[in-house]
Amino acid sequence: MRLPDKMLASLLVIFSFSTKGAASWGTKVSSDPEVVWGALDHDVELRIPDFSMSDDTEDIRWVREESRVAQFKKGKSTYSLNGTYELVGNVTLKIKQLNRHSNSSYKVIIYNTKGECVLEKTFDLKVQEMVSKPELSWNCSTATLTCEVVRGTDVELTLSLDGKSLRTQQKIITHKWATSWSMTANCTANNRVSEESTVAVANCSGKGLHIYLITGICGGGFLLMVFVVLLVFCISKRKKQNSRRSDEQQEMRAQRAATEERARKLPPIPASTPANPAAAQPPPPPGHGSQAPGHRPLPPAHRAQHQKQKRPPPSGTQGHQQRGPPLPRPRVQPKPPQGTAESSLAPSSN
């Protein structure tokens, strides 16, 4: 073999050996950090891609913001901080029970037995809360479909209706439909660490009649209430009128009774004055010793005439019609008849 061929073959051997060593140890990495997503209250593992342990691996060190959290060193026990961190297979870093303060940058540095840094890689850990199962609900009276999720960080909601999709970055999505009374809805909630979905059939085909029935019942109840109010008002008004009329009648009766009582207490109206005052006096009883010797009882004709001149006292109706006490009338002294005077003078002449 000529000298140039030998030199070319040796160069090929050296190049192949260097390629195997690079594949085994990797190269020093200084690229952008790798983003890793973790679920809140769950564990996460930071794996080194394309790396395997070998006998030349001396030291594997995990650092969080320049603070050591875990380390593997050949011939010594594995170190982990506070039991929160653990080395799996002496290479992969496991972080237990992530919380909201676990968001940070983690760096791994690997050294060989010669003390050379063969690998350096950075991980950017971000923690999210897992989404809850979305809830589907619908209102047939307003033809509204609602999908809502309660828990989750950076939730993305997707509502699918008969091949059409609606998407939002909020925790609630609402859709109004007017094409049909029944449809299949699929609601999906997801983020970087979890995904949940719910499928339901929104059926309102048998509820349209119920809506009209409920509306009719409400309208009928309102009209019935108005009728009852008016009826109560009319009855109350009628009772007030009857009570007022009864009071007026009682008042009229009381006034009438008072007037009749006043009429009974008034003195009787005097009759026409008799022509002979002496004839108006009743005759003295017979045998009366104090009778004057010159007077005699009236004859029967004059007594009958005197009784006819007396009138009975006025009744209650006449007293009721009189509006007050009678006015006094002047008394006229009647002249005695001539026959009576002659008869009274005849005995005196004897």
Q: What descriptive keywords fit this protein?
A:
six-stranded mixed β-sheet; four-stranded antiparallel β-sheet; 16 strands; transmembrane; disordered C terminus; 32% helix; 350 residues; Immunoglobulin-like; 6 helices; alpha+beta
Walkthrough of the structure:
With 350 residues, the protein is an alpha+beta fold. Among the domains are: 21-128, Immunoglobulin-like; 135-205, Immunoglobulin-like. Helix content is 32%, strand content 28%. It is built from six helices and 16 strands. A six-stranded mixed β-sheet has the order 1-9-8-3-4-5, with no helix packed on it. It has a four-stranded antiparallel β-sheet with strand order 13-12-15-16, with no helix packed on it. It has a three-stranded antiparallel β-sheet with strand order 2-7-6, with no helix packed on it. Strand 15 (182-190) and strand 16 (195-203) form a beta hairpin. The longest helix is centred in the last third of the chain and has 58 residues, at 208-265. The protein is rod-shaped, with a radius of gyration of 67 Å. The termini are far apart. Residues 11-26, 288-295, 304-310, 315-322 and 339-350 have low confidence and may be disordered.
Distance between the termini: 229 Å
Helix content: 25-40%
Q: Order the strands across the largest sheet as they lie in space.
A: 1-9-8-3-4-5
| Count of DSSP-assigned helices | 6
Derived from helix and strand composition plus strand pairing, the structural class reads alpha+beta
The appropriate CATH architecture of the domain at 21-128 is: Sandwich
In short:
One of its GO terms (biological process) is positive regulation of tumor necrosis factor production. The chain is α+β, with helices and mostly antiparallel strands.
